[in-house]
# Entry
Amino acid sequence: MPDDIPGIHHVTAIGSDPSRNLSFYTRTLGLRLVKRSVNQDDVSVYHLFYGDRGGSPGTSMTFFPYPSARPGQVGTGQVSAVAFLIPEGSVDYWVDRLADADVDAADPFERFGDTVLPFRDPDGLPLELVARADAPDGDPPDGPVPERRAIRGFFGVTLSLTSAEPTANLLETMGFGETDRERDRHRHESDGDLGYVVDILEDPQAPRGRPGAGTVHHVAFQVTESDQAEWRDALIERGIRPTEIIDRKWFKSVYARTDGGVLFEFATKSPGYTVDEDIDELGERLVLPEWLEGRRDEIEAGLPDLP
Ligand code: ZN
# Structure
């Protein structure tokens, strides 16, 4: 078997207005735009990557902002919430910060002993801030949020499923063993320090998710180059049909639709977002993988303006 997976690599969601998306994730949440590129499967749409200073694995939230996207519906068969990790003692700061920015937020509450602050992005995507004493220092970007309050990266994701099995079983295989349970929420944890939590919310009656703005497209887990093919084989053995290994320039990816309907990706930690840009210049210009560089003029002409 390949090694256990330490945590989430990135999460990719669908948005609408790219300028509004950029403003929310950088100015309101204080993440850094670490890559400005296009959806490699639809080059008329941006692919915006936000993260810590260098876009380390476990910190990067990415978007396909389709300007005319219709709102989706968050529901079963999807990642139904994305949680970011903040240092303990930062909840009041974030309550005030989100209120000042007129963000749609609810009151903080306790879940498995942690304080959770739920809110939504401008497209309605469900997000959470989870405060923990063991949040790593990380490498937060210079930005509007003071370093001691800054988002460290992912805490985890919630999967909404009509039936917890067999996704729970797959997660166990990946290294995310079940550690706790509270009513219909099953907590699975791996041993990494970012993106190490996957909660399964089991609700046979919940509405089925529908893709669109404000919904997650897929969740990617960190694997090593040497383990990636083994994970692909392990998925095939389970009767899941993964894609081939796809070169995404900043990582290599295998995608697999899991039995519960959620799209998983197995993405390599290397080479990372600094492979084609200096760390001080990340996100400033449109970056294309070399196989799209010949179409740059056409691609740039088809994209909306972005600050
Ligand atoms: Zn991905």
Q: What stands out?
A: The chain has one domain: 8-302.
